[in-house]
Design a protein that fits this description.
By secondary structure, this protein is of the alpha/beta class. The protein has two domains: about 25-240 and about 515-530; about 250-500, Nitrilase/N-carbamoyl-D-aminoacid amidohydrolase (4-Layer Sandwich). It is built from 18 helices and eleven strands. The strands form two sheets. It has a six-stranded mixed β-sheet with strand order 5-4-3-2-1-11, sandwiched between helices. It has a five-stranded mixed β-sheet with strand order 6-7-8-9-10, covered by helices on one side. It is globular, with a radius of gyration of 27 Å.
Amino acid sequence: MPRFLTRTHRPLATDRAGRWHRFGALPRRRVEEGVAFGSGLLAVYGLPGDLLFPAALVGFALFFRLVVAVPPRRGLFLGWIFGLGHFSLGLTWLYRTLHDLGGLPLPVALAMLFLLASVLALYPAIFGGLLPSLAPRPWLLPLVAPALWVVTEWLRGSLFTGFPWNLAGYMLTRWESMLQVADLGGVLLLSFVALLPSAVLAWLFTPGVGRTARMAAPLLPVLLWGVVFLYGEWRLVEVAEEGAGLGPPVRVGLVQGNIPQHLKWEVSQQEETLERYLSLSASLTPPVDLVVWPETAIPFFVQASPESVERLTALSRQLRAPVLSGVPTADRREGGGWRFYNSVLMFTDEGGIRYRYDKRHLVPFGEFIPLRRWVPGTFHKFTEGTEDFTPGSGSPLLPWSLGGIGPLICFEAIFSEEVARVAASGARWLVNVTNDAWFGEKAKPQHLAMTRVRAVESRLPLIRVANTGISAAFDATGHLLGAIPSAVAGARVVEVPRGAGGSFFVTSARWWICVWLGLALLPGVVFVLSGGRRN
């Protein structure tokens, strides 16, 4: 062949190959990003409201397999893409809060949902950026991936006031026996248990895994799940026997007014709202030991209405039981002005308002504006009223003749460590009052499931009452004792067994993050220090 043909052919071939490489690499990266986004969507379907665990198992497995095989910077971006899909779909109920009830235009509501999902996606991004370095060999993946994900969940629940909504551990709420291990390590231990099968599945599809390892690997999650199940079965029996030895169950009246959110704060509806709750409560079948109304069931400052206080006192006298209700309250500041609180008041036949608890963990933008001194005064929170609420202080307990009540207002019930501190302060009962009318039907079973796990973690009975549902009561094993379904007005008495409390998680909650950090960091560090290199 003539030399000029040889010389011209080679550059053409090289150029053609280069072009194929450039154009071939671009679709591959987009495919990776599509898989990351899709796996984030898929993982949502394992959470309360759907509880399709196989979908979540595959979603997390795809994500783990994807990011462990790429450089850290690429894993960081793919983790963010996963989180964007995961939180955009998982928090769609916020659209109703922002648009239908908050009054924001559709584009603004969607933009704010996207912004929130983008911020929360930073936690999966941290996971994606660290996993390739912390699991330098494929066989480290089953241990490191679930532990590292748990660390990012802990961060999400702790930083910037925290938002631990729909952690991976809540995927196990379908199985009551599996839930019982939460009294050892809380919902984060449930997250580790739930994600181990996904991590093992991701490892099985990693190149280089031998035939023997592929056959033996599934035994790891089977063994762990078997131990967790057997522990749960044992604890179900043990906790039931402990409760029976503490005395007879108490009869708690759940009262659900089902006041539509758009009418709840109308001044013209105040009397009708109070009358509805009084009438529903009066219909309870005696004897009753405690009556519970939802968050802000009384939608006005009852401190300034002696007549309303007297009517509640009369109800308490009629039922021979204290009435616990959510109420907005106000205290005068020294030097003028007012402080406003989201509170729970206990009304008794001994003298009206007997005890009070002020919500401590407020919702950013819903109950207060962060960094208020630097925000224009024209910018108000999304809920009714222009004034910010003030976080409460003082004792977290409400005294009661049958044992101290640990009150939890709205989303205070989704914070494991905070509820553990309430339980450690001497609570014998947990009472969650909430108004889930803000969140729509999709969020209600999610919030209920998270609240249920607090009963298991603390080994205390939990009574939950919501304005538009779902109101329910759980014993110390998280077993449902009775409920009022969503979107109906009703009242019912539920017999609630006593709980011993004092779980291992209550005493050790603050130290568990050390365990998860150790499991996430030590295997890779030890491997590198022992002379290993990245595969």
